[in-house]
Backbone:
């Protein structure tokens, strides 16, 4: 394809010269002069995501594009390192009392927000008061529902007391939405905090220099940063919504890094010598979930049968090989609490056997709901349907746009959700078993985030116990049991594959930090050249 | 002048009807903006609070009433997704869309007239055939595909023009081409037919008989009359061109009103969709009024 257009012959140039429009534009656009003595690295890096950040208020964000910019500008008390271990950040050290509910954080000295406000214990207290304020109604309020109170011990010591011993406390405090914002700017800007460049102030290695919505967000190195200062002076976020255009912009060198690479382009980019594709296991997994209130999915044997009937190796190989690995549990391997339960084997005979036992020797008809919002969403549903056909289950596929799809899920009572099997991307933003299992499979009065109305008494008990358990070994044993129940014995979903997080960059770029949480940050990134 | 005044008067009822239509449509299609804004990890209580904050728990008629009252005061509401006032968002983005649309029209008219006239006047069949086939090809090329091809050729392979974003005039060249080439094809075909038609008319022969110079015959007598149908075609295509900005702005990452509306529909960001459609509809009405004025100026028969 590219060879076809790669002619740089004089004829080609003369031909183009007749298009005066093009020519004049080249004349005004190409006015750059030769650079002075070329530095080893450029002073800016350009990153193209699929969308602009919706807000730079960490307490009010739920989308990846906002999160990854927020992680450059703000910092939590503690944070995940590249191997998902929890390490000090704004807190130098921290400890928990034997009661399991009292956590003390000792803050780093001499940290200032971008607006000059010093970081102290009172600032931290005001932050948690802000995210928990029911009137302000920030989107992340439910993440912090276990916090009872936050107290200032002395200017550099803050104490957080939880309502009960909470096993996932540290990953929650390391979550991007636990990031500490400048209380001075947050109070001054009120509801507008995070919506414009001058309504943002954190302690992170970069501050916001300018922000034109959907055009570019410019982050500039914060010279007053307490730690290692940012490697490149400017990081520019330039959203490109159209996937094919994003890839072309990387290939033409208009941008240095892109995320959300179309699955079909990954092999081609990997083959290119000027482009590097970085892939790593993340928290994401692709499932098809059961609505267990709909017959015949009330019967666990039917759900097992569906799971055995699906030829996962073929699906992974033929459709998603470039960004998927077979699932081995209800959680992905990098999450806290994960237990390796092995891949579900492709076993149509066992599926037929289970269907006979459940009283469906001739199969049944069902519906699969899907959305193209997930990569290959429609193709995956088609593959699952064709596998189910082989064991006698006839599945009709319904394709919805995202907005329609989520309406079937959020806040409905079981009787109102018409879906039977539906696609779902899982990915707990704390990388912990609690957030990865509790909201989506624990029995709830309304569906909360348990959109399949899954309910298993033993699972509920185990999850409750695990949530309050702070001893690591006991906690792991409980979560292993929970995964055995929901993945094998009484399956709540068909886990198809774990999703790899991938970003692509020009080979001149070094020091990228793609993270398992599905975000990429640039504090160490550099672009060679001038 | 009177004509422009009449057009503005006509604008009011059109906008009322459009606002009613848009409001009904966005509320009829499935999808709950509060759910989308809250994200999948939020609790139903959070979603309920967001819905109340946005006033989405009120009856649709009440919501429409509030929308109209506020819109009359110049307030189009706040974006559900980003919390930014819709009016401000449109003000920031409209210049990009206007530049794109104007560039697209200029290209359509300029290239279309030159190619169409060239084909009509050409004495060599080959030239006419090539130009006509070219315009047919341009008129039938989908702008999405064209946009990606332009990017592939001029940005990736040749490296002449930036592929995405805005900033310098060069950034607008490829989007304007993607937007305008289809219309240029249509204009060229219409021009060719119309010029051919006029060339055979008696008044041209009369002009030549009077001894008028050949170039004057063609331009002052021929083209002027041939332009009328072309002008009405361009007027009709403005709406389509503005619709095209939705696609072209998304592909070339131009932060205009079209892309804003596309994102808003996906997120069911009702105020943004309503504001965007109202503004674009107003533009179409104004531009159509202008073409009418121009048509009258060109044609003495309809000059009042």
Residues:
């Amino acid at each position: 394809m590219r060879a076809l257009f790669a002619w740089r012959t004089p004829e080609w140039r003369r031909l183009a010269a007749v298009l005066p429009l093009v020519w004049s534009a080249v004349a005004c656009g190409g006015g750059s002069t030769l650079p002075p003595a070329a530095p080893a690295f450029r002073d800016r890096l350009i990153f193209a995501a699929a969308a602009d950040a919706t807000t730079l208020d960490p307490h009010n964000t739920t989308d990846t594009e906002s999160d990854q910019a927020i992680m450059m500008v703000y910092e939590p008390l503690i944070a995940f390192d590249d191997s998902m271990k929890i390490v000090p950040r704004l807190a130098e050290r921290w400890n928990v009392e034997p009661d399991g509910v009292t956590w003390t954080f000792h803050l780093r000295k001499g940290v200032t927000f971008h607006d000059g406000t010093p970081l102290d214990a009172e600032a931290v207290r005001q932050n948690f008061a802000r995210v928990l304020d029911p009137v302000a109604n920030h989107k992340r309020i439910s993440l912090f529902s276990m916090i009872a109170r936050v107290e200032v011990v002395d200017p550099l010591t803050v104490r957080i007391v939880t309502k009960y011993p909470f096993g996932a406390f540290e990953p929650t405090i390391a979550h991007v939405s636990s990031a500490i914002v400048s209380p001075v700017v947050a109070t001054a800007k009120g509801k507008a905090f995070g919506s414009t460049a001058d309504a943002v102030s954190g302690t992170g290695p970069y501050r916001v220099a300018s922000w034109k919505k959907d055009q570019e967000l410019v982050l500039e190195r914060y010279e007053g940063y307490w730690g290692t200062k940012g490697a490149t002076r400017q990081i520019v976020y330039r959203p490109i919504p159209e996937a094919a255009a994003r890839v072309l912009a990387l290939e033409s060198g208009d941008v240095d890094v892109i995320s959300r690479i179309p699955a079909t382009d990954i092999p081609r980019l990997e083959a290119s010598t000027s482009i590097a594709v970085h892939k790593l296991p993340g928290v994401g997994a692709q499932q098809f979930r059961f609505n267990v209130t709909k017959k015949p999915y009330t019967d666990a044997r039917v759900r097992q049968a569906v799971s055995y009937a699906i030829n996962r190796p073929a699906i992974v190989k033929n459709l998603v090989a470039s960004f998927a690995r077979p699932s081995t549990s209800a959680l992905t391997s990098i999450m806290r609490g994960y237990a390796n339960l092995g891949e579900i084997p492709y076993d149509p005979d066992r599926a037929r056997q289970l269907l006979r036992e459940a009283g469906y020797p001739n199969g049944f008809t069902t519906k699969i709901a899907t959305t193209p919002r997930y990569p290959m969403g429609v193709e995956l549903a088609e593959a699952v349907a064709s596998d189910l056909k082989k064991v006698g289950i006839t599945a009709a596929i319904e394709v919805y746009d995202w907005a329609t799809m989520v309406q079937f899920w959020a806040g409905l009572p079981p009787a109102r959700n018409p879906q039977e099997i539906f696609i779902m991307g899982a990915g707990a933003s704390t990388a912990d078993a609690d957030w990865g299992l509790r909201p989506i499979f624990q029995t709830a009065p309304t569906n909360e985030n348990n959109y399949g109305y899954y309910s298993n008494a033993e699972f509920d008990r185990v999850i409750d116990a695990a949530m309050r358990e702070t001893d690591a070994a006991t906690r792991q044993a409980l979560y292993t049991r929970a995964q055995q129940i929901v993945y094998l014995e009484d399956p709540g979903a068909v886990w198809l594959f774990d999703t790899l997080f991938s970003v692509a960059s020009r080979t001149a770029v070094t020091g990228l930090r793609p993270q398992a949480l599905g975000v990429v940050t640039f504090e160490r990134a550099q672009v060679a050249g001038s | 002048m009177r004509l422009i005044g009449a057009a503005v008067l006509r604008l009011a009822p059109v906008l009322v009807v459009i606002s009613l239509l848009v409001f009904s449509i966005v509320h009829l299609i499935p999808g709950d903006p509060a759910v989308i804004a809250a994200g999948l990890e939020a609790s139903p209580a959070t979603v309920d609070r967001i819905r109340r904050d946005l006033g989405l728990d009120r009856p649709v008629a009440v919501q429409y009433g509030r929308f109209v009252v506020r819109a009359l005061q110049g307030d189009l509401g706040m974006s559900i997704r980003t919390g930014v006032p819709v009016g401000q968002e449109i003000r920031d983005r409209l210049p990009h869309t206007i530049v794109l649309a104007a560039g697209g029209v200029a290209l359509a008219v300029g290239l279309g007239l030159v190619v169409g006239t060239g084909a009509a006047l050409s004495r060599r069949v080959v030239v006419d055939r090539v130009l006509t086939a070219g315009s047919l090809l341009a008129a039938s090329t989908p702008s999405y595909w064209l946009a990606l091809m332009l990017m592939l050729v001029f940005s990736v392979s040749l490296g002449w023009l930036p592929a995405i974003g805005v900033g310098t005039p060069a950034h607008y060249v490829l989007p304007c081409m993607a937007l305008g080439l289809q219309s240029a094809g249509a204009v060229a075909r219409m021009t060719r037919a119309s010029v051919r038609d006029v060339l055979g008319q008696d008044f041209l022969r009369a002009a030549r008989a009077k001894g008028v110079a050949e170039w004057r015959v063609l331009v002052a007598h021929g083209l002027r009359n041939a332009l009328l149908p072309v002008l009405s075609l361009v007027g009709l295509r403005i709406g389509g061109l503005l619709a095209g900005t939705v696609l072209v702005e998304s592909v070339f990452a131009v932060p205009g009103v079209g892309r804003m509306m596309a994102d808003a529909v996906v997120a069911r960001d009702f105020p943004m969709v309503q504001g965007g459609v109202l503004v674009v509809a107003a533009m179409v009405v104004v531009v159509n009024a202008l073409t009418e004025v121009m048509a009258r100026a060109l044609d003495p028969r309809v000059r009042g």
Observations:
- The CA atoms of residues 166 and 254 of chain B lie 6 Å apart.
